[in-house]
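Quick one, T. Sequence first:
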Amino acid sequence: MENVLLLGGTGFIGSNIIKYLKKERYKIFVLELPGKIHDTNDDVTFFYGKLEQIELVKKIVVDNSINIVMHLASSLIPSSDIDAYLNEFEIIIKPTITLLPFFAKSNVRFIFFSSGGTVYGTNKSGIFSESSKTNPISYYGHSKLILEESILLEGRISNLNYLIIRPSNPYGVGQNIFGKQGLIAASIGHLLNGEKISIWGDGTVVRDYINIEDLAKGVVGIIENVDNNQIFNIGSGKGYSVNEIIDILKKCSVADFEVEYLEGRPVDVPVMILNVKKFCDIVGDTKICIEDGIKNFYNYEISKMKNK
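Structure tokens:
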């Protein structure tokens, strides 16, 4: 059995990955912020603290013979401004870089969740493979790239064992429908509240979406089946415009709703589709199509409302 520590493991992605880790040979530990509310779980050991508490993180790793550290911690969203970025540098980026030599010395396998939607920037085709140039146009993407480059550097200097995961846009059951991140989740939240849905730009921005179940299973599949020191895009490999997502929601809800188009944002790449051949060669194609995924997500939220 291997012992895995998740940094920021009670969020949308982390909590779903934990479900699939439980099915395998892992003992699970989570470092979460003090005061964070989570479901009681006898199969998971929780520690409370901040990433910048370097000695606490080291103690958890040593005392619990941690083999794998999964880094999902972040305070940013793609539209975050310079002030949020500077805060992220102090509470996430700097502590992570500080810990990398320790992880290397401890022979820990370090798995970093980057971003498949923001580290690349733009190109003519709108399709990005792991070898594509990385030219982020947002502070969020830049923050991820700084950590990616620091991990690669530590791999060269200290033989850090790492995997870098670049997921596309995850969505699905368990995502916060009243948050500021995630087009599908936020749109369902507005729809169920009887509110208009606000769209940045004219709705032609294209993104690659992956259902959280496919993402979580895929991540565990990669951990189980690949060697260290690789980068993986994880997505559906298909692109859908904002307007297409809205049309799918209209079919799911069988209701008309108002859509408000706002001025476009400079941080939004026009087209972002991931080349996921490397991922699919390891774990196979994603299984949940966008129409079924959105319908299941929407119906789940409807049932929650009815049961309140």
